[in-house]
Amino acid sequence: MAGSTTAERGERQQRSSGPPPPVRRFGQRHVRRIIVSAVALVFLGSGAFWLLYGSDLVRVERVSVSGTRVLTPAQVRGAAEVPLGEQLISVDTETIEARLAKTLPRIDTVDVVRSWPDGIALKVTERTPVLLVHKGGKFIEVDDEGVRFATVSRAPKGVPALELAISRTGSTAASLRRFGENRLVREAVRVAGALPASVAHATRSVKVRSYDDISLELTDGRTVDWGSSEKNAEKSRTLTALMKAEPGARHFDVGVPTAPASSGS
Question: Which residue(s) pair with 207 in the sheet?
Fold first, then answer.
């Protein structure tokens, strides 16, 4: 029997394979989705821009103040000069922070925060006095960094006085020339900050004669020779132990903490 011809075999193959598959149009649909998404993003962006820069809904209407102790919220708001009615996004927070630091030295740090949708929050940390300098019937407050930040008419309770018994001639002059008055004040601040709590509360004054000659006078008349501000932690522990061991002593010397001394009764 004769086999099928080449033409017949081709015809059978074409019938068995069926019609060609339709051409998919995913490419066109994908392009349409991209266009629609892009248009939507443009509208959303325009709306957000208008909301932040053109809408009355996000303008500054209130200024809140927190963290004040001596200062009043009204003082902080007045010094901050926050532009009421301005778009919240346009408020220059760094300029406000710098203005507060310059105008109110009592402020140690301040965070100016946008409080959406219509507020500015001023979060204040005030300086805390650790020593007082008596001058002209008033008191200059000195913080734990040696910054003289405020002058008050009444001494805050529990803050010792700083006595600068420094002469520009004589034995203490060399220390003054070498370190300068500001450095000596900072050394006294370091000593005051290192005192045991029980001693700190009972300290009337911290006297500075030179870099390595700092002493304390307590409210009950007892005195302490501290020396320099070096080894403050060790001196603090030594003084605590010495006062417990010699409760009747009137004078303590912890200038050399490994060889402390006490005297008087």
Answer: 163, 215
Q: Write out pLDDT tens, residues 99-152.
A: 999 999 999 999 999 999 899 999 999 999 999 999 999 999 999 999 999 999
Q: At a CB cut-off of 8 Å and minimum separation 6, what does 186 contact?
A: 145, 146
The CATH number assigned to the domain holding 106 equals 3.10.20.310
**Where do we find the tokens 């200024």?**
63
Is the omega angle on the peptide bond into residue 83 within 30 degrees of 0, that is, cis? no
In a domain, 195, yes or no: yes
Q: What is the DSSP letter of 169?
A: S
- 8 A C-beta contact, residue 113 and residue 121: yes
State whether 255 and 141 are in the same domain.
yes
Same domain, 113 and 76: yes
Q: How many domains does the chain have?
A: 2
pLDDT of residue 47: 40
Name the burial class of residue 198, with classes exposed (0-12), middle (13-18) and buried (19+) by CB atoms within 10 angstroms of its CB.
exposed
Mean pLDDT of 43-72: 70
16 beta partners: none
**Contact criterion met (CB below 8 Å) for 129 and 143:** yes
Residues 156/129, Cβ–Cβ less than 8 Å: yes
Residue-wise pLDDT tens digits, 11-42:
555 555 555 555 455 566 666 666 555 544 54
Please write the tens of the pLDDT for every residue from 205-231: 999 999 999 999 999 999 999 999 999
